Amino acid sequence: AQSVTQPDIHITVSEGASLELRCNYSYGATPYLFWYVQSPGQGLQLLLKYFSGDTLVQGIKGFEAEFKRSQSSFNLRKPSVHWSDAAEYFCAVGRGQGGYNKLIFGAGTRLAVHP
Amino acid sequence: DSGVTQTPKHLITATGQRVTLRCSPRSGDLSVYWYQQSLDQGLQFLIQYYNGEERAKGNILERFSAQQFPDLHSELNLSSLELGDSALYFCASSVATPGPSGNTIYFGEGSWLTVV
Asked: Is B103's CB within 8 Å of A108's CB?
């Protein structure tokens, strides 16, 4: 069955510290992989996506993620966290036939940032 | 701003009532998706429409229905509402082409539904 696991429900880091959010997936084929962020009271914003090629992808707001096929992982990283990064982060997988796709989301990781 | 517009942003209604949530996809996107986000279920895919036709169904209750109109906007109808239907309902859209572009889904800001 297709699934996404985000092992950490809550993470707290200090401002300026590095961040890594974990994501593991189970999927029949090589999926497309996504990270979304949801700020309090806001919608889901696409941070970055992986389709093929270079396994390290860059996104918006200074985030990057690395696809590791052998580990079925797509962890999100940021070298220095800002207070405005406090939000909930969702990893998602899916691969459809163009416009016919549905994403499978993880349960999310809530990030708190201490000043 | 993703370009996906949802109305209303907030809605409070009583049990047993019916509501309609509206969504305008990004310009040019033929596919529209509806997701439900609740505390206990997380983000759940409800249904997808492509150019007016239903394409995929997820965990959508029989009391819920959706449609996509010729101008590509979509409506999600929720009827006989129960307390447990209180959630954030997202609409999303994507282009209808194979490959990465067609698989990149953009979400609106959601419609908060509270059933009392």
From this structure: no
- Please report, for chain A, how many H helices and E strands are present, in that order: 0, 12
Q: If pLDDT is split at 50, 70 and 90, which confidence band does A100 have?
A: low
Interface test with B, best of A4, A32, A103 (most B CBs within 10 A): A103
What pairs with residue B75 in β-bridges?
A: B22, B67
Q: CA-to-CA distance for B13 and B111, rounded, in angstroms?
A: 13
Residue B39 makes CB contacts below 8 A (sequence gap 6+) with none
Contact at 8 Å (CB) between A80 and A61? no
pLDDT single digits (tens) B12-32:
999 999 999 999 999 989 999
CB-nearest partner of A98 from B90, B96, B107:
B96
What pLDDT does residue B104 have?
82
**pLDDT, tens digit (0-9, with 9 covering 90-100), for A56-84:** 999 999 999 999 999 999 999 999 999 99
How much is the pLDDT for A106? 94
Gap from A104 CA to chain B (nearest CA, Å): 8
Q: At A111, list the tokens.
A: 């990030």
pLDDT of residue A51: 86
Residue found under tokens 């996906």: B4
CB spacing of B42 vs A97 below 8 angstroms: no
Using CB atoms, pick whichever of A46, A96, A99 lies closest to residue B30. A99
CA A82 remoteness from chain centre: 17
Q: Which of A102, A46, A44, A95 is nearest to B49 (CA)?
A: A102
Is B110–A43 a contact, with Cβ atoms under 8 angstroms apart? yes
